[in-house]
Amino acid sequence: MAAPGAKQEGFYDCRDAWAKTLEDLAQQDPRIVAVVNDSVGSSKLGGFQKKFPDRLINVGIAEQNMVGVGAGLANGGRIPFVSAAACFLTARALEQVKADVAYANFNVKLVGQSSGVAYGELGPTHHSIEDFAWLRPLSNITVVAPADSWETAEAIKWAAAHEGPVYIRLSRMPVPDLQVVDRKFRPGKAELVRDGGDVTLIACGTTVHLAVDAAGALQREGITARVLNMATINPLDETAVAAAADDTGAIVTIEEAGIRGGLGGAVAEFTSSHVPVPVERVGFPGFVPTGSVDWLFQQFGLTSPGIVDAARRAIVRKRA
Fold first, then answer.
1. How many Å separate Cα 52 from the centre of its chain?
2. N or C terminus: which one in the chain shows less Cβ crowding within 10 Å?
3. What angle do CA 197, 202, 204 make, to 5 degrees?
4. Looking at the whole model, is its pTM more than 0.85?
């Protein structure tokens, strides 16, 4: 994975795809508006602001107000994309997300920028590793963590057409596009990136390409790994999880988020009740120290070798 702002051939910033797609959609649909918290630059909405100056509302550093404004615009027939750093959008404004968006079931599109630990050196106040756990219980909010630029663009298109609240989690760390034939974005459905019969790697967002790399390393050891891109965290594709448990008997979840209540929590909840199999969760156990993104990923096993180790542990437990 490339560090934030770094240029690496074949790696792309998903925020570029988000910004271009939103501009294209707004050109076609005058109901689309953007609401930000003094984050035009970090949300990459400078182009949108130039093209549609009357359709970008900057509320300043007031996240609760920002979500409330988005809810009001949705109630008035607009399609608001409310964009802010994920750590502030889902923490500071959680009550407004719960009451004004989810409980009211308003057509608001929440876009959490620079998610996970992308603000590495700024520490836990700027990490956004709890957002999955906070939003999953709000069952009518579709929670999406795109794996690459293509999926980001498709998720934004889908969200604009979908009637109902959505949370889209975007990173600012460049990632490569997945190599999957005949791709189609299907919310609520896992994407089979690679098949295998010994263990299943279920990942989302910035970690999917790491899971693919790990599957390649496992293949060289004679272990075949299925890789699922679980872009939609809520609702979880329980059918795909059940099939993975039945077919491979061992699962590893990988996420740039807390393992308590996130993707790993969702998979463990389901399998423990329906298809009990060993589940190893790779992610963050709680608050993590201040450090660079690369260092944090290394420390907590969010690397190809770390995922390989987790897969080996899951297979040992399966055979025990």
1. 27
2. C
3. 150
4. yes
